[in-house]
Design brief:
The complex is a heterodimer of chains A (about 575) and B (about 280). Chain A contains 19 helices and 21 strands. Chain A has about 575 residues and is α+β, with helices and mostly antiparallel strands. Chain A folds into three domains: about 150 residues, Periplasmic binding protein-like II (D-Maltodextrin-Binding Protein, domain 2), CATH 3.40.190.10; about 120 residues, Dipeptide-binding Protein, domain 1, CATH 3.90.76; about 220 residues, Dipeptide-binding Protein, domain 3 (Roll). In chain A, strand 18, helix 14 and strand 19 form a beta-alpha-beta unit. Chain B has one domain: MetI-like (MetI-like fold). Chain B is built from 13 helices and no strands. The model of chain B has no long low-confidence stretch (mean pLDDT about 90). Classes of the chains: A alpha+beta (about 575), B mainly alpha (about 280). At the A-B interface, helix 8, helix 9, helix 12, helix 14 and strand 19 of A face loops of B.
Chain lengths: ~575, ~280
C-alpha cells in the first residue's frame, strides 16, 4: 500500500516535531525511566549465538502517534506499523516477494482472469474467540469502497463488479475486466471483524483505539501520548510469535529516541544518515551493542509542484527547475551518499524501473535558457527573474524532517543561482497535511512517497484522484498518463505491463510534474539482544519475519531489577 | 537627570559588566559582514559537522556552514528583534499608560482591566498561539512580541503620571493654561523617561530570549537565515556528538540576556532611592 511517507526510513513514522515543545518533557521522562544499562557481562555476550526461545519484550519507538488503528482510513505509516501486527490480510508477500496465503489457504484465478476465488484456512478466529469467516472479508470490502469511508485506497477495489461469500470458507471477487494489481490489492487490505463494526461509523468508532484482530498480537493498552502495548494473541491464526510483548513508545523527537536507545531503554529505531554513517561508527560502545541495517526501501523523496498554480502549469518552467537542482549534491550532502538519483518512480533495479531513463543533469545554463523561453527575464537587474512584472518567487513547504529541510536549503541556493527566489517553511506534520496538502494551498512541496510492490500508481497520478484527502494533491492531469495507468491495471502479461510502466515513467520524466530528489535507504538500528533477523536484508526487508525474532533469556531486561530501581 | 542615573549605574561593577557585554555584542553584530570568516549561508557538503578548528573556530553545522559566521549574523537578528519588539511595546505602553494616567476615569479603568486580562494569559503561550495563525517570519515575530508585552510599560507610565500630576510644577503649568498635549509631552513624559528606559532594557532581554525560543521551535526566523535559536535547534539532534552546535549559541543567548539584565538591574538600583542610600 502507498503511504504518505514521513521519513525515508524503514520504520516509518509520524511528524518530526510539534514535539520540540516536548523535548524537555521527554528528556525528563527519560530520566524517570530507570537506566536499564545492561551489565558488562550481557554486553560481552551479545555476539554469541543462542537457541531460539519464546518470551521477552521488544520495545521500539515511533515519532508520531497513530490517529487510529483502522489503516484503510488513517492512510499513514504510523498506523499501519502497529495495525499490521494486529490484523491479517488475505494474502502476503514472502521473503522473496512472492505471494502466499495469509488468511487464504489457496486461491484460484478463473480462465478469463476476471474472477479470483479464495479458500480460507479452517478454524480462523478473532482474538475475542468469534469465528473469522468470508463474511468478514466481504464486509471489509464493502467498507473500503463505501463513499462514507473516504478511504484513499478505495480506487484499488472499485473495479470489482461482484463479490460473493457462498460459504464461510469461500470468498470470490469478479472484476469487470481482468485487473492486474488485484492480488496485490488483497495483500494490502487488512480484514476487519464484521461482528464488532457492522453499522458503525469507521471514522468515529471506539474500535479504532481498541481493536480486535486475528494476527500474532493483540492490543493490551494504549496510553495516549506514551505507548501502545501489544501482547501475543493466543488464538493467532498464523501460529505463535516468539516475543511475548511488543511495546511501542511514542517519543516525538529523534534525539530523545536516540538517548533512549543508547540507554538500552528501547531496542530499535529508525536512523538518519548522520547517526548511521557518522555517529554510531565513531562510538565503539554503540557499535558493540547495536546492529545496523540498511535496505533500499520502496520509497523516494521528491519536490512536487502545485500544477494548478502559475507558472508551474508550464512544463518548460518545471524542466528548468529540474535542471537547476543538483540532485547528487543533495544525496552526498544530506543523505551522506545513502541515496540514489532516480529517473522513474520505482525502486531502482526492479523490473518496473526503466533502465533507459537518465535523471535530469545539473545544468544551470539550460535552466536559464528554458526560463527565458518561458518568458522569465531579469528586467530590473536585481538577480530575480520576472514575467509580466512579477518576480519569480515561491515558497517550498515541507514537514519538519531534517533531511527534507536541508534538501530545501540546497534547492533554495541552486535556484537562486538561476534567478528564482525561494522561501522555505517547515510545518508540523498534522497541520502540514490538513492545512496545506488536503486544501491544495501550497506552491511547491518537498515530501516522500512510500510505495507498494505493484507498479500501479493510479491513486497518485490519475487525474480522477484529486479530491481532498486523495493522493494526487499536486493536481496532475495528463491524458496520456491517465491512459497508460488505466492500461497498466488491465494488462496481465508481465512483459507488456513492464513496457507500459516504462513508457509511463518516460512521459512522467519528460513532463516533470515532480523533481525526484533521492531514493533513500531505510536505516535501522536494532539492539543485538534481538536475534533471528536476516542480514543482509532479503527483498522483503528485515521485518518480514519479525514473528520469528527472539530475545534469548540471558539477554533480556531484568524485570525485577527494574521495579527496584523505579522505586528509588 | 537620566545622565546622572547612567553614571551612577555604571559605578556598580556588575552593571558596568552588563554594559560592556552589550556594547561588545552590538559591535560584533554590526561588524558581522566585515569580521565573519565565511559567508553564513555558504554550504559545503564536504565539511559537514566538523568540530572547532583553526579553519572553523566554532565548527560547522549539518550543511557544512561555518558556525562562527552564522553566530555573528544570528546576533544581528537577535538584537534587531530585541530592539524593534521593545520599541513597539514601549510605544504602545507609553501611549496607553499616558492616556490612563492623565485622563483617569473610565478610560483608565478600561485600559487597566485590559492590562489585567493580558497579564493573566502566560505570554509565551499567547505568542505561540498568535504565531501559529501567521506565517512565521522575523517581521511577524517582532510585531507579535511587541504587541504582547506592553503591559508592564503601561502600568509604569500610568503610575508615574499619577504621581507626577500632583506635583507643583505640573499644577503650575496647568494653572497657566497649558494644554493637555503640552502637559503630557513637555512635563509628564520627560520626567517618566528614566523608569521607561530601565524597563525597556530589561524588556530587550526578554525579547531576545523569546525570539530564540520561537526560532528554536521553528516558529521564528526561518531557514536559511541564521538566528541563535535555530542554530540551537540544529544542535539539539546531535547534542552528544556535535556539542559546538549547542554550546556556542546557548552561551551567546546566556551572555546577551545576562548583559541586559545586569545593566537593567543596575539602572533600577540607581533609580531607587532606598537602595542607593546604603552606598
Amino acid at each position: 500500500m502507498k503511504n504518505l511517507a514521513f521519513l525515508n526510513n524503514k520504520i516509518l513514522k509520524g511528524n518530526a516535531k510539534a514535539a520540540n515543545v516536548f523535548l524537555l518533557l521527554t528528556l525528563l521522562t527519560a530520566c524517570d525511566h530507570p537506566a536499564q544499562n545492561l551489565s558488562q557481562e550481557v554486553l560481552s555476550n551479545l555476539d554469541k549465538s543462542y537457541p531460539s526461545q519464546a518470551g521477552g519484550t521488544l520495545i521500539d519507538a515511533m515519532i508520531g502517534e497513530p490517529s487510529g488503528l483502522i489503516s484503510m482510513i488513517a492512510g499513514e505509516s504510523a498506523s499501519s506499523a502497529i495495525s499490521s501486527n494486529i490484523f491479517n490480510r488475505l494474502l502476503k508477500y514472502d521473503k522473496n516477494l512472492d505471494l502466499e496465503g495469509e488468511l487464504a489457504e489457496s486461491w484460484q484465478i478463473s480462465a478469463d482472469q476476471k474472477t479470483i476465488t479464495f479458500k480460507l484456512k479452517p478454524n480462523l478466529k478473532w482474538s475475542d474467540d468469534m469465528p473469522l469467516t468470508s463474511a468478514d472479508i466481504l464486509w471489509t470490502w464493502h467498507a473500503v469502497i463505501d463513499e462514507k469511508t473516504r478511504s484513499p485506497y478505495a480506487s484499488d477495489y472499485q473495479l470489482v463488479k461482484k463479490t460473493e461469500a457462498p460459504d464461510p470458507l469461500t470468498f470470490s471477487v469478479t472484476y469487470e475486466q481482468a485487473y492486474a494489481p488485484a492480488l496485490d490489492s488483497w495483500a494490502g487490505l487488512q480484514i476487519l471483524p464484521k461482528h464488532l463494526l457492522e453499522g458503525q461509523d469507521l471514522h468515529t468508532t471506539a474500535f479504532a483505539r481498541n481493536p480486535v484482530g486475528s494476527n500474532y498480537y493483540k492490543l493490551d493498552s494504549w496510553t495516549h501520548g506514551e505507548n501502545l502495548k501489544l501482547s501475543r494473541n493466543p488464538t493467532s491464526v498464523l501460529g505463535q510469535a516468539k516475543i511475548d510483548n511488543l511495546v511501542t513508545r511514542i517519543i516525538p523527537d529523534s534525539s530523545a529516541q536516540f538517548l533512549e536507545l543508547m540507554a538500552d531503554n528501547i531496542d530499535s529505531m529508525a536512523l538518519d544518515p548522520i547517526k548511521y554513517a557518522r555517529i554510531i561508527p565513531a562510538r565503539p560502545e554503540l557499535k558493540q551493542k547495536l546492529a545496523l541495517y540498511k535496505e533500499l526501501g520502496n520509497s523516494y523523496t521528491y519536490m512536487g509542484f502545485n500544477l494548478k498554480h502559475k507558472p508551474f502549469d508550464d512544463a518548460r518552467v518545471r524542466r528548468a527547475i529540474n535542471y537547476a537542482i543538483d540532485k547528487q549534491e543533495i544525496i552526498d550532502g544530506v543523505y551522506l551518499g545513502l541515496g540514489i538519483n532516480i529517473a522513474s518512480p520505482y525502486k531502482p533495479g526492479t523490473r518496473w524501473s526503466n533502465p533507459d531513463l537518465k535523471p535530469y543533469p545539473y545544468d544551470p545554463a539550460r535552466a536559464k535558457a528554458l526560463l527565458q523561453e518561458a518568458g522569465f527575464i531579469d528586467s530590473d537587474g536585481d538577480g530575480v527573474l520576472e514575467r509580466d512584472g512579477k518576480p519569480f518567487s515561491f515558497e517550498i513547504i515541507t514537514n519538519q524532517n531534517k533531511e527534507r529541510e536541508k534538501s530545501a536549503v540546497l534547492i533554495q541556493r541552486r535556484l537562486k543561482e538561476v534567478g528564482i527566489d525561494v522561501k522555505i517553511r517547515a510545518i508540523e506534520w498534522a497541520s502540514f497535511i490538513s492545512r496545506f496538502i488536503k486544501t491544495g494551498d501550497f506552491d511547491v512541496v518537498v515530501l516522500g512517497w512510500s510505495l507498494g510492490l505493484d507498479p500501479d500508481q493510479y491513486n497518485i497520478w490519475h487525474s480522477s484522484q484529486q479530491a481532498p484527502g486523495q493522493f494526487n494533491f499536486i493536481g496532475y492531469n495528463n491524458p496520456t498518463i491517465d491512459k497508460l495507468l488505466e492500461q497498466g491495471r488491465l494488462e496481465l502479461n508481465p512483459d507488456k505491463r513492464m513496457k507500459i510502466y516504462h513508457e509511463f515513467a518516460r512521459v512522467l520524466l519528460d513532463d516533470s510534474p515532480i523533481v525526484y530528489l533521492s531514493a533513500g535507504y531505510g536505516l535501522t538500528a536494532i539492539h543485538k539482544r534481538v536475534k533471528g533477523i536476516d542480514n543482509p536484508a532479503p527483498p522483503a526487508g528485515i521485518g518480514w519475519n519479525s514473528y520469528d525474532w527472539y530475545i534469548p533469556e540471558p539477554l533480556r531486561r531484568s524485570e525485577a531489577g527494574r521495579n527496584e530501581i523505579a522505586e528509588n | 537627570m537620566s545622565h546622572n542615573i547612567f553614571k551612577k549605574a555604571l559605578a556598580n561593577p556588575l552593571s558596568k559588566a552588563g554594559f560592556i557585554i552589550i556594547v561588545m555584542v552590538f559591535l560584533l553584530a554590526m561588524l558581522a559582514p566585515v569580521i565573519s570568516p565565511y559567508d553564513p549561508d555558504e554550504i559545503n557538503v564536504k565539511a559537514i559537522l566538523l568540530g572547532p578548528s583553526w579553519q572553523h573556530w566554532m565548527g560547522t553545522d549539518g550543511l557544512g556552514r561555518d558556525v562562527l559566521s552564522r553566530m555573528l549574523f544570528g546576533g544581528r537578528i537577535s538584537l534587531l528583534v530585541g530592539l524593534v519588539a521593545v520599541g513597539i511595546s514601549t510605544a504602545i505602553g507609553i501611549l496607553l499608560g499616558a492616556i490612563a494616567g492623565y485622563y483617569r476615569g473610565w478610560v483608565d479603568t478600561l485600559i487597566m482591566r485590559l492590562v489585567d486580562v493580558m497579564l493573566s494569559i502566560p505570554s509565551f503561550f499567547l505568542i505561540l498561539a498568535v504565531i501559529a495563525f501567521l506565517t512565521p517570519s522575523i517581521v511577524n515575530v517582532m510585531i507579535v512580541i511587541g504587541l504582547t508585552s506592553w503591559m508592564g510599560v503601561t502600568r509604569l507610565v500610568r503610575a508615574e503620571f499619577l504621581s507626577l500630576s500632583g506635583r507643583e510644577f505640573v499644577m503650575a503649568s496647568r494653572t497657566l493654561g497649558a494644554k493637555d498635549a503640552r502637559l503630557i509631552f513637555t512635563h509628564l513624559l520627560p520626567n517618566s523617561l528614566t523608569p521607561i528606559i530601565v524597563s525597556s532594557v530589561l524588556g530587550i532581554a526578554g525579547a531576545v530570549l523569546m525570539e530564540s525560543g520561537l526560532s528554536f521551535l521553528g516558529l521564528g526566523v526561518q531557514a536559511p537565515q541564521a538566528s541563535w535559536g535555530n542554530i540551537l535547534t540544529d544542535g539539539k539532534d546531535y547534542i552528544q556528538f556535535a556539542w559546538w552546535l549547542s554550546l556556542f549559541p546557548g552561551l551567546a543567548i546566556l551572555i546577551t540576556v545576562l548583559g541586559y539584565n545586569l545593566l537593567g538591574e543596575g539602572l533600577r538600583d540607581a533609580l531607587d532611592p532606598r537602595s542607593s542610600s546604603n552606598k
